[in-house]
Specification:
This protein has 3 helices and 11 strands; from the N terminus they run ααββββββαβββββ.
Length: 227
């Protein structure tokens, strides 16, 4: 493990030095004295490249879900969803923490099973979907919490405001469907809508006890495949 980390760090540093010098890095002929490590064989170089390899998946909007929950009238939980999502996942099956992902959700695709309410949520008092068309997320890191459960950190942009969030990433699975590779996972997180300047029907103390709560719990369940 220590040797693998040393090789990865050395490879990255040498790639940068080679770029500054204007030459391509030949992975099978790294000088023995570079950064104080021994020469890298072609086999070691191949292993290094494999350790960096990720596979690009595209979110399947038909089989993916974005659900949300918010308290209404300080007593009841209300649920809604978004009907559209686009996303790309760079997935490393050998080490999930090397993966990354980004998603875009059209704000106007909100669906609460009531067209009048949906129109109200799309307008300037809530999402202002005409001006801020998309809700987006871009990951910055993935770290393992426990076996099979990860912390997904990234930047969420909503209503024109970008903030860092942490989500719990779990149920990460790989397989095949109709002869093509697929992956699936679920991310759960919560936000305070006041952090994104969505203040309509909010309690003065920014709690969940007003006409409409401040905390919004979100579940993003993704199935993705290779195009």
């Amino acid at each position: 493990m220590k040797r693998t980390k040393t090789l990865i760090a050395s490879g990255i540093a040498l790639t940068a030095l080679a770029g500054l010098a204007g030459f391509g890095l030949q992975t099978n002929t790294i000088p023995a004295n570079a950064l104080g490590v021994s020469s890298m064989t072609a086999l070691e170089s191949s292993a290094l490249e494999s350790s960096r390899a990720t596979t690009t998946y595209t979110a399947d909007a038909v089989h993916s879900n974005v659900l949300f929950k918010i308290r209404h009238g300080s007593v009841a939980n209300f649920y809604g969803r978004f009907n559209e999502i686009k996303g790309t996942i760079e997935f490393d099956e050998s080490d999930v923490t090397n993966s990354s992902m980004e998603f875009v959700i059209p704000a106007a695709s909100v669906d609460t099973n009531n067209s009048s309410r949906d129109d109200h949520i799309r307008d300037a008092e809530f999402f202002n979907a005409r001006q801020f068309k998309n809700i987006s997320f871009e990951s910055t890191s993935i770290t393992e919490k426990t076996d099979g459960v990860y912390t997904l950190t990234g930047n969420l942009t909503l209503h024109g405001v970008t903030r860092e969030i942490d989500a719990t990433l779990a149920e990460v699975r790989t397989g095949s469907f109709r002869g093509k590779p697929v992956i699936g996972f679920e991310a759960r997180f919560s936000i305070q809508r006041s952090d994104y300047d969505i203040m309509k029907y909010l309690a003065e103390d920014l709690s969940d006890n007003g006409p409409l709560g401040n905390t919004v719990e979100i579940i993003v369940a993704i199935e993705a495949g290779i195009k």
